[in-house]
Amino acid sequence: MIQLHNVSVTYQQDVCALNGVSLMIPKGDFVFLTGASGAGKSTLLKLLYAEIAPSRGQIIIDGQNISRLTRSELPYLRRSIGIVFQDFRLLPNRTVMENVAITLEVLGLGRKEIADRVTRTLKQVGLEQRMQVTPCRLSGGEQQRVALARALVNEPKILLADEPTGNLDDENKARILAILKEANCRGTTILVASHDRRLIAASHKRAVLLDRGEIREVLDEPH
Amino acid sequence: MSRTKFKKRPAPGSGGILGLTGYFFRRSLLNIRQNLLINVLAVVTITLSFLIVSLFLLVFVNLEGAGEIWSEKVQVTVYFERELNSKEFAALRNVIMTLEGTDAVTYVSRDEALKRFRTRLKGQEALLDGVPSEILPASLEIRLKQAYRTSEAVEAYVSRLKKIPTISEIQYGEEWVRRFNTFMNFMRFAGALLGGFIALAVLFIISNTIKITIYSRREEVELLELVGATRFFIRIPFLIEGMIQGFCGALLALLILAGVSWAFLNHAGNFLLFNPQEAGLVFIPATFCVAIVATGVLVGFVGSLTSLHRFVDQS
Predict the structure, then answer these.
(1) Looking at beta carbons, which residues of chain B come within 8 Å of A73?
(2) To 5 degrees, how large is the angle CA B270–CA B276–CA B280?
(3) What's the pTM?
(4) Domains of chain B
(5) Which residue, among A67, A71, A78, A114, would best test binding to B if mutated, counting the most B CBs under 10 Å from its CB?
(6) Which residues in chain B are contacts of A107 at CB distance < 8 A?
(7) For the segment B99-114, what is each residue's pLDDT rounded down to a tens digit?
């Protein structure tokens, strides 16, 4: 599903964010990217949804070399990827429902279908009672779940989540992990960047340890 | 795998192209409602800008109107030593009417001339008591068509008129015509120059106002890109919003100006030395009003397009 071949990213000519990273994530896999701050976790995720381009190497997603995609083809790649941003990126003046609906609106779906799918997804993340409020009236955990719902509502092939449990209490962490596992069970390939070792241990999933832009260790799924 | 694997056209929704158009308009109106403050500020700025332009146009239109009224005074007078009988006048009138630029020909008899003289001396008519009408010449007053009221055209007309055998003495107030034309040309030039500066300043202000409204929503633009929106999909609601802002701003400016103008025409006579309605003051013609609103829509569209170019195309 996702393949990285000797990928490097260099910022401002001399700051190396990733160095010769090669990684293969099969379809339907659930993988954590872990490491200290500045290890390159977010950079790797940004490469996958093409917010930045690699300085060197190839990235293949679903058999497609994404470096060769034209600007007009990029949106169609992004529609197959759900993204949960570290800072949520919820639009403050739109309701929860409208925030989640954005993902479906760009697909050009009809109003009724959008309303049905958004309601269903918000039920899955336990926010069906908060559909008409704006994000500023939600707790951190609730905002995170809205961001997850927005990423999952179009049933993407891949879900990328950047620190989805950062600053959340244990109860909310467990809830987010459960939603991610559910999506994974429905066939979505999941890649989560997190420095939360307890969460990774509790998930029983494969983890890739990054250190200063290089893969230091791959911790296999415990049996 | 084919290279265009990800390039799939989006499903156009339940209503096809119409559904998509409906979506864009709905989204634009929702965006305006959800970003009400910044949109109101933009519309107020556009309104004030168009108010300046419209006020300038109003003044210019009325000055042009006044110029047209003054230009009525540009006329050629042919004097005769004796009265013409009706046959002679009709024959001469027919010849003069065939000349290019003639609008109307009026015969002024000696009696009529004396009557006019008396009117001009209102209050001192006694000075003319006992004065016979024979001391004044009979004349033909020739009014020229609008396009023939410049000094060059009048001179050319007079030289054609002189070729008619029965005509010898002609007066047309050369100096007045020259001064009048110089004044009108200066007014048009100054108007075009000032209008040009105002238009540029207004375009700059409106375009920057729209830029600020879009800049304040750059996070939304970035998010739309990251969830897979095409450039077309991101741009259209912003362009519609820009056009709505421009339309509302220009229309509001005209409504405010129409209100102020109506109040001035109907009530300013109470405290001014003249009655504005009788002075022939008018509002901006309907075609100009339509042009102002259309310009508002166009400026809104172009302002949004250039701002989006910065945030969408170069991101």
Answers:
(1) 4, 6-7
(2) 160
(3) 0.74
(4) 18-69+182-313 (no CATH), 75-171 (3.30.70.3040)
(5) A78
(6) 10-11, 228
(7) 888 999 999 988 888 8
